[in-house]
Amino acid sequence: MDRPLVITEDPDLLDDLLRVAAAAGAELDVAHAPAHARPYWARAPMVVVGGDAADALAATRPPPRHRVVLVTHGPEDPDTWRKCVAVGAQAVLELPSAERRLVDEFADAVEPAARAGLVVCVAGGRGGAGASVLAASLALVASRGGLRTLLVDADPLGGGLDLLLGQEETEGARWSDLVAREGRVSFTALRAALPSVSGLTFLSFHRGEAGAIPAEAMRSVLDAGQRGFDLVVVDLPRRPDPAAAEALGRAATTLLVVTADVRGVLAAAQTLTVLREHTGEIRAAVRTGILEDEVVTASLGVPCAGSLPDQPRLTAVLNRGTVPRLGSRTPLGRFCEAFLRSAVASGPFPPEAAR
């Protein structure tokens, strides 16, 4: 892959540009003189011209091209705009104030076209309803079906989705490594940093004390996730915090897992009131119980996404730290397949996905 091109002889400016590029997950080609830039000029996805090299570059009369920016350390002055026009730049960026925009420019230059990934949130109508199991299962079935999938643990007190997947010892970044992030995160860098299992990329918490996720960090992760993944599944806490609200605001669908008993429906009704403040489409995934599915959904006033019969052996599998097979013969596997077929905008979900 061709890399962004930087043209400058200023070592301080170059150091700053290398640092900003690293934050975007980008590597650079560097030309210390305009003559050295000729082989890269046309094919580089982006060209950054240092203010110190602008006049010398303009003298070579480079052919016009898109995505050229002039970067300076000094305050803006009329001569800066003259240089901008001379080299055919589309913008002038002054460091350090424009660092965040430059990160975005580098990231756009090195990333493939955005995927506009679908966000699906999963919440429990009450504690122990099985929302985390459903979120993990949806993500696993989607991944095995060929969808590039990211599973995000947004519940600091949920015990950790990595544990549920049997991957608590797997190396890779957790939320504590990402909570300070603001602004754009390269999805290629995010995917490389996060652990994965069976082709599924996931983000969970470290063991021990787990603080709340800043909304800015969740925003950065979801931005990257939607650019680089087909599907992002978010396991929510029962009461949305600012980070969960960020996810709900992006969700195409939110699944509310409801146990089909009186207490479960009453608890789900309270949860539903809070969820409706942040998101649009909400569907009930009904855990089989003493009440009929139609009674549950009519009481809540939401459509039914399907039934989830109990699977006694599933608990034993999860407690062993084994990733469940979730084949089409299992109730949970069938639910996930059916939901994904209806929800994934890119087309029908292949019937063999969960086998």
From TrEMBL:
<dbReference type="Pfam" id="PF26563">
    <property type="entry name" value="Rv3660c_N"/>
</dbReference>
<protein>
    <submittedName>
        <fullName>Septum formation initiator</fullName>
    </submittedName>
</protein>
<dbReference type="GO" id="GO:0051782">
    <property type="term" value="P:negative regulation of cell division"/>
</dbReference>
<dbReference type="GO" id="GO:0016887">
    <property type="term" value="F:ATP hydrolysis activity"/>
</dbReference>
<dbReference type="InterPro" id="IPR017746">
    <property type="entry name" value="Cellulose_synthase_operon_BcsQ"/>
</dbReference>
<dbReference type="Pfam" id="PF06564">
    <property type="entry name" value="CBP_BcsQ"/>
</dbReference>
<dbReference type="InterPro" id="IPR059050">
    <property type="entry name" value="Rv3660c_N"/>
</dbReference>
<dbReference type="GO" id="GO:0005829">
    <property type="term" value="C:cytosol"/>
</dbReference>
<dbReference type="GO" id="GO:0009898">
    <property type="term" value="C:cytoplasmic side of plasma membrane"/>
</dbReference>
<dbReference type="InterPro" id="IPR022521">
    <property type="entry name" value="Rv3660c"/>
</dbReference>
<dbReference type="InterPro" id="IPR027417">
    <property type="entry name" value="P-loop_NTPase"/>
</dbReference>
<feature type="domain" description="Rv3660c-like CheY-like N-terminal">
    <location>
        <begin position="7"/>
        <end position="114"/>
    </location>
</feature>
<dbReference type="GO" id="GO:0005524">
    <property type="term" value="F:ATP binding"/>
</dbReference>
<dbReference type="InterPro" id="IPR050625">
    <property type="entry name" value="ParA/MinD_ATPase"/>
</dbReference>
